[in-house]
Amino acid sequence: xxxxxxxxxxxxxxxxxxxxxxxxxxxxxxxxxxxxxxxxxxxxxxxxxxxxxxxxxxxxxxxxxxxxxxxxxxxxxxxxxxxxxxxxxxxxxxxxxxxxxxxxxxxxxxxxxxxxxxxxxxxxxxxxxxxxxxxxxxxxxxxxxxxxxxxxxxxxxxxxxxxxxxxxxxxxxxxxxxxxxxxxxxxxx
Length: 189
Ligand SMILES: [Zn+2]
Fold this sequence. Notes:
Blueprint: E1 2-5, E2 10-16, E3 24-28, E4 31-37, H1 42-65, H2 70-84, E5 93-97, E6 105-108, E7 113-117, H3 125-140, H4 146-152, H5 158-171
Parallel strand pairs: 2-4, 5-7
Antiparallel strand pairs: 1-2, 3-4, 6-7
Helix pairs in contact: 2-3, 3-4, 3-5
Bound molecules: zinc ion (ZN).
Residues 134, 138, 144, 188-189 line the site of zinc ion.
């Protein structure tokens, strides 16, 4: 086992005597793990690691692009509702907005509308999914009470996403941001 530092992410290469020809790569706790056969030469290792990292990035990039439009957001939201909220949260509309500079998303339970800050664009999929689940859960529970958080934590990566977003907010503290972030009447964030 050895660890190599890459510009984008830490890569850990694990050699396995049981592997003959297959190479596998996945993300684990923020780093990239590449499983290769023990018999690979150093040159083979380099070539395969580069190839697998590029492949993972392409796949993740495609996933991000898939949420480009408001329609994509709606499809994703319904999938998440089915997967984690028994399909009970059904929004009437979801859209990306550019005027939420302090909050990641907001929801108006009365008309079942959800808005996601465009600052989320390009963030990892599990983070965008978390904000979607959060706003979807507000369709079922408007306040941030215990019941609400129990709904949100049905999404397995909720705490990880919260940690990620806290990090982003911490990192941008002090950065000047436009102040146009008033909640619409009846909306929660
Ligand atoms: Zn909320």
